[in-house]
Specification:
The protein has two domains: 5-81, Rna Polymerase Sigma Factor, Chain: A (Orthogonal Bundle), CATH 1.10.1740; 88-168, Arc Repressor Mutant, subunit A (Orthogonal Bundle). The chain is built from eight helices and no strands. The protein has helices spanning 5-27, 34-46, 57-81, 88-95, 106-117, 122-133, 138-145, 149-168. α1 runs antiparallel to α2, α1 (5-27) crosses α3 and α2 crosses α3. It is globular and about 55 Å long. 15% of the residues are buried.
Length: 171
């Protein structure tokens, strides 16, 4: 692939864009906008450091799309059973750790919290660590991890919800 990176991606999406949106539409549980997910596929392709190592860019494109559709469906299923984590009242509740009473001391809770955090994806763990332990803003964390501040917020919210669920089971 000697074609410059951006030109290759533009050509790929010009040629495969319609098929990609159809591919995504067939795999989505909810009738979300497949064009929005196709843009996310494009962004993920842009993040690939060395496109020349990809033997079949078209196959790779649809592999990314299949993985993205799977991720989207998991989130859609979960959101149907859960609260809106963007709600301020929910955020306040998520920010508080559940009470474990007199039986558990701070050291045991801290150890358990570390174990629970290790269950999260690496980028999610990194966002939490940078935001809470290093006191960095969402923007600063985003720059450090190479993601948007909006994505950092999503990672932190996801981590808080996960920790709350897992820690509450112990109480």
């Amino acid at each position: 692939m000697t074609e410059p990176r951006k030109a290759l991606l533009e050509r790929l999406f010009d040629e495969q864009g319609h098929a990609l949106r159809g591919f995504l539409q067939k795999r989505l549980i909810r009738s979300s906008d497949p064009a929005e997910l196709a843009q996310e596929v494009y962004l993920r392709m842009l993040r690939v450091k060395d496109l020349s190592r990809i033997r079949s860019p078209e196959a790779y494109l649809f592999t990314i799309a299949a993985n993205l559709a799977r991720e989207h469906n998991v989130k859609s299923r979960a959101s149907g059973r859960s609260l809106d984590i963007n709600d301020d009242a929910v955020q306040e509740q998520l920010a508080e750790l559940p009470s474990f009473g007199q039986e558990c001391d701070a050291e045991a809770r801290g150890k358990r919290l570390q174990e629970v955090l290790l269950e999260l994806p690496v980028k999610c763990q990194a966002a939490v660590a940078l935001h809470y332990w290093r006191g960095m803003s969402y923007e600063e964390v985003g720059k450090e991890l190479g993601i948007s501040s909006h994505m950092v917020k999503k990672y932190v919210q996801r981590a808080l919800a996960h920790c709350r669920r897992r820690m509450a089971r112990l109480g």
